[in-house]
Write a structure and sequence with these properties.
mainly alpha
Length: 98
């Protein structure tokens, strides 16, 4: 009977050691997962900040481009007006000579 109890106690101790080892491994894995999650969160924050900066730069570039297009359109309108007025003046001079 004592031998059976001693064997059972020894088996329980071995099982307890196994379980403690498994718990230690599980805790270590959880810590590694937490570390990976922290790294991923920090990377996400950096990417979000970079994306915000890029979006702001893109919006500024679009505003500059629109302003440049407006300036070109104004310049084209002025050139057309000058051509129209000079061709009208030339036509009037030609008519006056006739």
């Amino acid at each position: 009977m004592a031998t059976a109890m001693a064997t059972e106690v020894a088996a329980l101790r071995r099982r307890n050691e196994e379980l403690e080892r498994e718990v230690g491994e599980a805790r270590a894995e959880v810590e590694r997962a937490r570390a990976r999650a922290r790294v991923a969160e920090e990377a996400e924050e950096r990417l979000c900040a970079e994306l915000g900066e890029i979006e702001a730069e893109g919006a500024a570039a679009a505003r500059e481009y629109r302003a440049h297009l407006r300036a070109l359109a104004d310049e084209l309108a002025l050139a057309r007006a000058l051509l129209s007025s000079s061709s009208s003046a030339a036509a009037a001079a030609a008519m006056a000579r006739c």
